[in-house]
Design a protein that fits this description.
heterodimer, A: 529 residues, alpha/beta, 38% helix, B: 491 residues, 7-stranded mixed sheet, 15 helices
Chain lengths: 529, 491
């Protein structure tokens, strides 16, 4: 086994693997080091109860960049994505709301809540679709740098300015509002029905410690529509085998290009000599050297633990310490003896072949946030439920099912202190099951096994600081040229030969692969490796 | 020599009118109420007791405006403020012996850097941003911003979107101090101290703030009215406008409730912009895009006003002595909890209070030895479940007195008279559709080029001859006079 590489990548999550694959494809000698026994980071599938496979943390494929699928030939390496058929919001009293790929069916559904909204919905979709093209430009390129005087950077800024003006006055105004308003204020300008606005607004709060009425939450609404222009079947879907299968397909691609991947190889320190990263020391004491060290871990872990503050300039260290995580979500995975039918729409129909949002109103969502603000988990949380076994029968034994439940809010900083989460874990799990039981009355008696992940567990097990699923809050001041901190949004760091390629870098979180790919491209372009 | 009508004799309408009258235009200001000033007017709220305006802070009134209009105002340093809780207190303000001086001076220094830049931006019309806009003003704005230097520019981009409590926590460990500092910055917003972007609105307020005016807003109104008369302008009170008259697509004057019709070349809306455009312009004359945009402007009022007549001084348990400014905010989470109630169309038992005791510097406002306490009550929503009934109003009164009693025990026993203005009362008395004192929430999507909405050529509307001249227009909130003054300059 060699001990010297062109590039060592810390962390075998999907971004680390994407970065490795691109570098290996360019002929570089690459090593990926993963602390756990499985690859994938938070995009991982594990069989924690015999015969039942959990897509443990992340559970849908959102915005995996189409060019990555192409460049790395992921389909040949086993990637298979089933589109989500429906976005379903069940109701305890009313008929519930399904939004389908078919606009006519969606129109009928929305009409039950508001005729006016049903009329406006397609128009809203068209406006957002056009804006999504503008946003795509931003996630598919390194972040613009408003502080740079370099001609290429100024051109990029001017280009963005021109594209913005090209949107025209009306769309330009909408884009401006999207970038600054709260999800609810923004949707209020279009729609009247609370029951429609609720599931639409939640995309703005996923993974952040903000409420749907907090300014700055509107822009994530675009993500939904960005998926559509990428091609619905690719961008929003469920990967056969769970999200672990996405990671494995990328890993296989990387290996096919010649990358070496080691699991159970936890890194202890990044070796820094005279402000240059020269390699890493593993926890077992092995030293490995490389021309470039690339961290797919979050900025706090990377700089404050692996590198050490003593190697960092003061203002950079301050920026990293101020970088906010504030994990706000948890995950409950269930093994089920039978399918727990929904009260408002019984049966296993197309309505449950997608994602199911438990959010019966805007006040409900806001109250869930308010509880979390003062250090409690939400007694009635927002939940996003997927039954992977309906989309891929191999996830559970025949006739049995698994459920993946994303839960918000579960604040990392509970009032007892985050280290007390293990004592609160089961109570949190109970709140989730109790809430879901309102909609699925037979849920409780069908549960064979449950796994409850609190933000504390996510931090301890998956190395995500404060349990933030996006490696740092996606708040306005932590995006674009400020991710993770001003002046260092282009994957390089103040330590030479040390780079970032995780979700803590532009354009941030989600199973997009974009930070990994953009980091690799930047490194190659700049001769960093 | 144009004939100009200004609707509304608030401080912005008057600032516009004086500027135009001094430029020799024929100006008529029409005021629906029987006296000028709007929310800045002083009034006798209880026999023998006067306040200096529903808005009671005149320190934001622009020095550029008062200088340009030749207003006779006596400026003085802004008195210090006491941030009071039941057990403890902090002093803030320039020149005073402040709490946590080291952190305070670092914070003041940062504000000063930003203020230098902000002063240039706030005192002129923002550039147009529509697709046909000339590039030069846009480029000038970009250049002004870049000239801040990378460090300050990037810092502004970093802190602007932050929650104000997060930003203040970078300077101050003391939560009592943070809550007090955050409180004033939240005025006119629909936010709590943990809402993102609330730092931007605090920066706006701090940037507008200068020296105080002796006599408060009422003194500014008086100076403006005197200046208007001196310049030959006309002020008509008890002259409620019924509608804006049109000649073709352009505004041609106004018709009053009394039936009088007054012709004009230009009509300036010094009143609330929503009320002006939606109630005074015939819907058939209102371009659909303009109607949609003005309807989308968020202007949810969430302040109430209480005036108390006291038979003695306001004695704070934690800080003896006479204080002109008192802030009661509790801890940051108390402030946040008070705002939480607003979201659910309710108000808390303990409310954030921004207090002025004008009788400390002007004893003539009350009988000898007596005092006037002017309280701007935050986190009280216009939209209240059950509506603003007499009962709800009484509950508000009790909540305010209860909160005040907690920092000044015994104060209730000295109350000899009081006036409670709920957001609904403010709406009715001052023609503010949802009781918002600044005609539009302060929020980053409703400021600068986007005030009151993006795509307007600022101050001019899509109706030729009809102009916005109230705080619905840039720079908006705060008692500044700038909105009207810049509008007049544009005209």
């Amino acid at each position: 086994m060699a001990t010297s590489y062109d590039a060592i990548i810390i962390g075998g999550g999907h971004n680390g693997l994407v970065c490795a694959a691109y570098l290996a494809k360019a002929g570089r000698k690459v090593l990926v080091l993963e602390r756990r026994h499985v690859l994938g980071g938070a995009a991982v599938t594990e069989e924690l109860y015999p015969g039942f496979k959990y897509t443990v943390c992340s559970y849908v494929v959102s915005l995996l960049r189409p060019y990555i699928i192409r460049d790395l030939d992921l389909v040949r390496h086993g990637l298979q994505i089933t589109p989500l058929e429906c976005s379903y919001t069940p109701d305890v009293e009313g008929p519930g709301l399904c939004r389908w790929p078919d606009p006519h069916k969606t129109r009928e559904e929305i009409q039950r809540y508001s005729k006016r909204d049903a009329d406006v919905y397609p128009e809203f979709g068209r406006a957002m679709g056009r804006l999504a093209r503008f946003a795509k430009e931003i996630i598919d390129n390194p972040a613009p740098d408003p502080a740079s005087w370099r001609p290429s950077d100024l051109m990029q800024l001017l280009g963005l300015g021109r594209r913005f003006r090209d949107l025209g006055d009306d769309l330009g105004a909408i884009q401006f509002k999207l970038s600054t308003m709260s999800a609810v204020d923004f949707l209020d300008e279009w729609f009247e029905s609370d029951f429609l606005k609720s599931p639409m607004s939640v995309s703005g709060i996923i993974g952040t410690m903000l409420g749907v009425r907090s300014p700055g939450t509107a822009y994530v609404l675009l993500h939904h529509y960005m998926g559509e222009i990428d091609g619905a079947s690719r961008a929003w879907g469920f990967a056969k085998g769970g999200n672990g299968a996405v990671s494995m397909s990328i890993a296989r691609a990387a290996q096919a290009f010649g990358a070496e991947i080691r699991t159970e190889a936890p890194v202890h320190k990044v070796l820094v000599k005279g402000n240059r990263a020269t390699g890493v020391v593993l926890e077992n004491g092995d030293e490995l050297s490389a021309r470039a060290v690339i961290s797919s871990c979050d900025p706090r872990l990377t700089f404050l633990r692996f590198v050490g503050e003593e190697h960092l300039p003061d203002d950079f260290a301050t920026g990293i310490k101020r970088y906010k995580f504030r994990g706000s979500s948890g995950k409950v995975n269930l093994s089920l003896d039978r399918f727990p039918e929904f009260k408002d729409r019984p049966g296993i129909g197309m309505h449950v072949m997608g994602d199911i949002a438990i959010c019966p109103g805007l006040d409900y969502l806001e109250r869930a946030y308010d509880e979390a603000k003062y250090g409690d988990f939400s007694s009635r949380p927002y939940m996003n439920v997927v039954f992977p076994s309906l989309l891929d029968p191999e996830m559970a034994p025949p006739g049995k099912h698994v459920a993946s439940i994303f839960v918000q809010y579960a604040p990392y900083d509970i009032k007892e202190g985050p280290e007390h989460w293990p004592e609160r874990r089961e109570a949190f799990g109970d709140a989730v099951i109790d809430t879901l039981s309102h909609y699925c009355p037979t849920l409780k008696e069908s549960i064979l096994h449950r796994q409850v992940l609190t933000p504390w567990d996510i931090e301890q097990e998956f190395g995500l600081s404060e349990g933030n699923i996006f490696q740092g809050e996606l708040s306005l001041e932590q995006l674009l040229f400020q991710r993770p901190t001003s002046g260092w949004a282009r994957y390089s760091t103040p330590v030479r030969n040390l780079w970032m390629c995780g979700s803590g870098a532009h354009p941030g979180g989600g199973v997009m692969g974009a930070p990994g790919a953009l980091a690799a491209k930047t490194l190659l372009a700049q001769g960093g490796v | 020599m144009a004939r100009v009508i200004v609707i509304g004799a608030g401080h912005n309408g008057l600032s516009a009118a004086v500027r135009l009258a001094r430029a020799k235009h024929t100006v008529t200001v029409l005021e629906a109420r029987s006296e000028p000033g709007g929310v800045a007017a002083g009034a006798e709220f209880h026999p023998g007791y006067r306040h200096q305006g529903v808005l009671h802070d005149a320190s934001t009134f622009s020095e550029a405006v008062s200088k340009d209009l030749g207003l006779a105002l006596t400026r003085r340093p802004l008195p210090h403020a006491v941030i009071a809780t039941a057990e403890t207190s902090r002093i803030v303000g320039e020149g005073a012996e402040v709490a946590d001086p080291a952190a305070h001076s670092a914070w003041r220094k940062r504000l000063a850097e930003i203020k230098k830049y902000a002063a240039s931006v706030l005192a002129e019309a923002p550039p147009r941003t529509d697709a046909d806009a000339p590039l030069l003003p846009l480029a000038k704005s970009a250049w002004q911003f870049r000239r801040l230097g990378n460090a300050t520019m990037m810092e502004l981009l970093r802190i602007g979107p932050m929650a104000v409590d997060d930003w203040l926590a970078e300077f101050f460990d003391d939560p009592v101090l943070r809550a007090g500092l955050a409180l004033e910055g939240l005025h006119g917003t629909w936010m709590g101290p943990r809402s993102p972007t609330s730092t931007a609105t605090l920066l706006l307020l701090e940037s507008l703030r200068g020296a105080d005016v002796l006599g408060g807003p009422a003194a500014v109104v008086k100076a403006l009215v005197d200046a208007l008369k001196a310049a030959g302008g006309t002020l008509r009170c008890d002259a409620r406008v019924k509608r804006v008259t049109m000649a073709g697509r352009a505004a041609s004057g106004v018709e009053l409730e009394s039936g009088d019709v007054i012709a004009a070349d230009h009509v300036l809306l010094g009143c609330d912009a929503k009320a002006g455009l939606l109630d005074l312009v015939d819907p058939l004359d209102l371009p659909p895009a303009l109607e949609r945009d003005i309807q989308d402007v968020r202007a949810r009022g969430l302040a109430a006003k209480v005036h108390l007549a006291l038979s003695g001084p306001l004695d704070l348990a934690s800080r003896p002595g006479a204080h002109e400014r008192v802030l009661v905010a509790g801890l940051p989470n108390d402030l946040e909890r008070a705002f939480d109630q607003v979201k659910y169309r309710s108000f808390a038992d303990r409310l954030p209070l921004d207090i002025r005791v004008p009788t400390v510097s002007d004893p003539s406002l009350a009988p000898s030895g007596h005092h006037v306490v002017s309280i701007l009550v935050h986190a009280v929503p216009y939209v209240l479940d059950g509506g603003w009934t007499e009962d709800a109003k009484e509950r508000l009164h009790r909540a305010v007195l209860g909160t005040l009693e907690s920092v000044a025990p015994g104060v209730s026993g000295r109350v000899v008279g009081s006036e409670v203005l709920t957001p609904a009362d403010l709406a009715a008395r001052f023609s503010l559709p949802q009781g918002h004192l600044w005609h539009g929430e302060l929020a980053i999507d409703q400021l600068f080029v986007a005030r009151p909405f993006l795509g307007t050529a600022q101050y001019a509307t899509a109706i030729p001859g009809l102009w916005l001249a109230s705080s619905a227009a840039h720079p908006g909130g705060g008692f500044t006079g700038l909105s009207g003054w810049i509008a007049a300059g544009r005209l």
